[in-house]
Structure formats: structure tokens, C-alpha cells
Amino acid sequence: MQIANPIYDVVFKYLLQNNEIAILVLSTILEEEIIALDLLPQETSLALENRSFTVYRLDFSARIKTRDGAVKHVVIEIQKAKFAADIMRFRRYLGEQYKKGFMLEGGGKVHKAIPIISIYFLGYRLEHVQVPVIKVLRNYYDAATGQAIPAREEFIESLTHDSFVIQIPYLGPERKTAAEQLLAVFDQHLKVAGEEHILDIDEAAYPEEYRQVIRWLNRAICEPKIRQTMDVEDDILAELEDMERQIAGMDRALKEKDKALEEKDRLIAELRKLR
């Protein structure tokens, strides 16, 4: 079955604005039961006319049922990037989240700090870690004994956070976990030849409980506005990549100039020694 490529911001947004699918995707990544999920009013979607569009940000208020039966309220922050340079935007946005209050279900304002879980979808490879899904989970330890501490403190939970990093280029046919099976809809190896906007996925090989994701993305193909916005994203990305190549060329020219000046200074110093 052919589906719209969710690496595009407009398709990614279409996917996660379906609440049922958002619960399925997020609970599978977190490996926790989400019993309630609400898109927060301070959703930040960036304009396509400038470079910052490469990061798509989306916030959810979630109630999660833990394995011991307790219910905790968290904010799930999702960001997606196509360029490695966007890391500074991640840091700035996370800082903004810690500074402001969040909205609870029903519109009530939360004045205390709510734990944040960050999920990053990367359209590029990290430098050292070569796996599709990375968990960054905090643990408490007694500094004297090294023993793990199972208890949780609101002070610590409010000032630190867990993260999940999805490296889209490493998603492929070898799907070891439920998260990797579900995230196969992001597998760029499935792109239709000559058509970056479309992935061709084998629905029969996709677990039954996740097929609603495929069917939803299949519907996106028929949305003219989505197709048009993907075209705009392609145009802007091409311009940005051309700009980056030009900047890289300027950097190389400056380095070569600096090297020539250093050589000139070295020769002058050598000549002075001969006098």
C-alpha cells in the first residue's frame, strides 16, 4: 500500500493530530500505557518561509499508567529535524518549556513544573550511535554505594527528563521491537522510485494492531493541500541545501586563505633568520 511520507512536516502533523493514532505511536515508543492524551494549545508549528521550518514541534499533555498502577501526568514534547544544525533549536525550545506553565485537560493551567518527556525524530544519522531508537532514561543512585534508588522525587522529576531519539535513516527491514515495527512507516528505504513523497509499504507484513497508521497515511495521499505543501518543503530544502553548499565553499576558501597567510608568515620568519 502506498502512504504519504511522514518525514515531511505536513504529513507528520497530519499523523499525530489523529488522537487515537498519536496514543498508539507514543505509547509504543514510550512502552507505557497512555490513558489520556491531549494536544496542548501551545503547539508550535513553524512557517515554511524560513529555515526554522525544519523543526516541527508538538506538545501533548498525557496521563500515563505506570507498571505499579499509579497514574502520572507528563508533557510529551515532540520535535523533528532534517538538519544536524537544528540541535540549538532543540535546546532553546526545551528551555522555553521549562519556563512556562502547561495546560491540563479541560483547559486548567498548571503552575507547578510537570515532568517532560522529549521525543526527537531525526532525518539524519548521529555521529557514533547506529541504532534506530535510542532511549535516554534517568536512574537514581546512592553516590556512596552505587545502589539504585527506586523512589522518585518531584524535585528531581521536574528538573530532569527522559528522552527518546528516533534515527530515521537506520529504520529498515530488521525490526527487533514493537517501536521499530510501528515506525516502519518512516522507513525511507521504502520510497517509490522518482517520488520522494510516497512510501510503498507491505501492509501484510505490518502487524495488524498498527495497520490503522498505514491506512491513515494512505488517506493523506489524496489530500491536495498536503501534496502541495510537500512540494513547497522540497523547494525550500533544495534552497537551504544550496545555501549550505555555498557556505561550505566559502569556509573552504577562507581556510585556504588562512593557510596561505600562515605559509607567507613562515617564509618571512625564515628569511629574517637568514639575515
Topology readout:
Layout: E1 2-4, H1 9-16, H2 19-30, E2 33-39, E3 56-65, E4 71-81, H3 87-99, E5 102-103, E6 109-110, E7 116-122, E8 133-136, E9 140-141, E10 148-149, H4 154-159, E11 162-167, H5 178-182, E12 191-192, E13 195-200, H6 211-220, H7 224-274
Parallel strand pairs: 4-7, 7-11
Antiparallel strand pairs: 1-13, 2-3, 3-4, 5-6, 8-11, 9-10, 12-13
Whole-number tally of structural domains: 1
Number of strands: 13
Biggest sheet architecture:
6 strands, mixed
The spatial strand order of the largest sheet comes to: 2-3-4-7-11-8
Number of helices: 7
Helical percentage = 25-40%
* Radius of gyration, whole Å: 23 Å
> SSE string, helix = H, strand = E?
EHHEEEHEEEEEEHEHEEHH
Which residues sit in consecutive blocks of at least 5 with pLDDT less than 50? Answer: 48-54, 103-107
Describe the structure.
By secondary structure, the chain is an alpha+beta fold. It has one domain (2-222). The chain is built from seven helices and 13 strands. It has helices spanning 9-16, 19-30, 87-99, 154-159, 178-182, 211-220, 224-274, and strands at residues 2-4, 33-39, 56-65, 71-81, 102-103, 109-110, 116-122, 133-136, 140-141, 148-149, 162-167, 191-192, 195-200. The strands form four sheets. Strands 2-3-4-7-11-8 form a six-stranded mixed sheet, with helices on both faces. A hairpin with a 5-residue loop joins strand 3 (56-65) and strand 4. Mean pLDDT is 80; it is low at 48-54 and 103-107.
